[in-house]
Amino acid sequence: METYRNFINGEWVESRSTRTAPNFNPADPRDVIGTVRLSTVEEVRAAVEAAEKAFPKWRAVPAPERGRVIDRAKTILARRKEEVARALTHEEGKLLKESLGEVQKSINVLEFMAGEAMRLTGETSPSELSNTLCYTVRQPIGVVAAITPWNFPVAIPCWKIAPALLTGCTVVFKPSTLTPLTAKMVVEVFQEAGAPPGTLNLVYGAGGEAGRVLVEHPSVCAISFTGSNEVGLKLYHDGAAVAKKIQCEMGGKNPVVVLEDADLDLAADGIAQGAFGSTGQRCTATSRVVVMEAVADRLLDLVAAKARAMKPGVDLGPVVDENQLKTVLGYIAAAKEEGAKLVVGGDRAPGAGFFVQPTIFDQVTSRMRIAQEEVFGPVLAFLRVKSFEEALEVANGVKYGLTSSIYSNDPGRIFRFVEAIETGITHVNSPTMGGEPQLPFGGMKATGLGTREMGRTAMEFYTELKTVYFDYTGRRRETNIY
Ligand code: NAD
Fold first, then answer.
1. What would the pLDDT profile of 5-34 be if each residue is shown by its tens digit?
2. Residue range(s) in the chain whose domain bears CATH number 3.40.309.10
3. Per residue in 387-402, pLDDT tens?
4. How far apart are the CA of 148 and the centre of ligand 1, in A?
5. In what order do the strands lie in the sheet with 11-13?
6. Is it the case that residue 479 has pLDDT exceeding 70?
7. Comma-separated ranges of CATH 3.40.605.10 domains in the chain
8. In 3-state terms, what secondary structure has residue 383?
């Protein structure tokens, strides 16, 4: 059985830590895949020091040359697609077709990012003064920590590591302890692609310890974090106190609004995909349906039929671990207690794995926990409303703001929804999940802090903008107006 090794300064090195965590198959936790050593404080510091040492040389490499490393990484990941997808399914639990989808998305991210190396542009601007050139340049920020969750353990690291490397930053990557195998594979891909020693380092470790070292280390200039609000907000607070640049992408409570004129079959299909795809363990999963009373019964029947037809283990993967299982079952119990009406599911599915039945509650009100808090499992809440205004109020009545969707054929109300919905991403007549690499990804309100990931905006986080005033008169000016 494999013991995963850290990757520091271009070498795979075994941690000396005696504390370990098992990597297991959530579809059958008796199937132990490997062992993670929870790195010591010194080991995390060694990774930061390697990144710090590699930075001056890496930033001096011309950006198009750095981009070619990302381009080769794309080709290597494409070659290893099936193998990485199988590892992803094995340790995280998503269906193989979902894993193949995630790996393909990661390839697309690398494809987009590689090209961006040729477009790290600034701007030129006219000056108030004659014979003066004003322009901006983007420069890498330095050592960046990428702290990532288990639910997209290939795509999220790729969409942090690629823009960091291509802009000339060096990276310390700390993945979730639940998905160490795919983390290793992601790093192998960049290693084979020619990322020089020290530019990308990997340390396995407990969040509260290894993660904390990264937050506190003075040589780490920026932290790109994706994960829960609980961890993200604390990290944001602690990092800000020592003047680090921080980006946090956190939880969601994503609504689908269905108006009376919607194509209900299309809406039901999108809702079921959004709620139960990836076992509801996507930050962009659909967790609330905000539906006009007039069509609520019909829509509920259609979605419920789809949920009943889904077989855990075949159409739906397990949740990731026992903690997550307890959390999901806890929310189901809370919804029952608070008076929501259980329509489908509501229990663990049989077998050794952490499977939960696809679950739907009707008659949910905005005050219930199931309407406000992120469940991160295959659990869907129906909230019935009587007007478009009420639908907007309910959809926006949560602290989160990642993604949303509206099903309607009425352009007037669709545009009003797009204008008023408080989410960083919104979809019209399609499910809440998904995002293309050439477009910004991230949330408003309590979901997202800092600049957006992916798209061209991704480069903002990893770079400092320098404004240059170049006076080519060669003499002292008589008047300097400002
Ligand atoms: P988590 O917050 O428990 O862990 C995320 C990462 O932070 C892990 O690597 C963990 O080890 C590390 N960590 C934990 N404590 C830390 C600390 N004190 N200091 C520094 N690092 C620490 O999240 P998770 O359970 O792995 O992932 C699920 C969450 O991620 C959900 O809330 C989901 O919505 C969110 N998520 C958000 C997005 C997005 O883009 N908005 C995408 C995917 C997942």
1. 999 999 999 999 999 999 999 999 999 999
2. 254-428
3. 999 999 999 999 999 9
4. 6
5. 11-13, 6-8, 200-202, 170-174, 143-147, 220-226, 245-249, 448-449
6. no
7. 2-250+447-467
8. strand
Beta-bridge mates of residue 400: 445
Supply the DSSP symbol for 128: S
Binding pocket residue ranges, ligand 1, CB within 6 Å: 147-152, 174-176, 207-208, 211-212, 215, 226-228, 231, 235, 249-252, 283, 374, 376, 402, 443, 447
Assigned CATH topology for domain 2-250+447-467: Aldehyde Dehydrogenase; Chain A, domain 1 (3.40.605)
Structure token digits, residue 32: 């132990």
Which residue among the candidates 283, 373, 453, 460 is catalytic per the annotation? 283
For residue range 199-234, list pLDDT tens digits in order: 999 999 999 999 999 999 999 999 999 999 999 999
Cβ(109)–Cβ(442) below 8 Å: no
Q: What is the distance in A from the centroid of ligand 1 to the CA of 329?
A: 20
The CA distance from 39 to 279, in Å, is: 30
Report the distance separating Cα 47 and Cα 91, nearest Å. Answer: 25
Q: pLDDT tens across 52-80, in order?
A: 999 999 999 999 999 999 999 999 999 99
Q: What is the CA radius of gyration of the chain?
A: 24
pLDDT digits (tens, 9 = 90+) for 137-154: 999 999 999 999 999 999
Question: Closest Cα to atom 8, ligand 1: which residue?
Answer: 176
pTM of the shown model: 0.97
Distance, in Å, from the CA atom of 171 to the CA atom of 47, rounded to the nearest integer, reads 9
Mean of the per-residue pLDDT values for the chain?
97
**Residue 190 exposure: Cα atoms within 13 Å on the Cβ side:** 36
β partners of residue 465: 138
Within a 10 A sphere around the Cβ of 424, how many other Cβ atoms? 21
- Helix or strand run (H / E) with residue 7: strand 6-8
Query: Quick one: how many helices (H) and strands (E) in the chain?
Result: 15, 23
Which residues are CB-contacts of 101 (< 8 A; sequence separation ≥ 6)?
none
Q: Strands 403-407 and 254-258: what pairing?
A: parallel
Distance between CA atoms of 84 and 458, rounded to whole angstroms?
25
**221 is a catalytic site residue:** no
Q: Which CATH number fits domain 254-428: 3.40.50.300, 3.40.309.10, 3.40.1000.70, 3.40.50.880?
A: 3.40.309.10
Quick check: is 249 catalytic?
yes
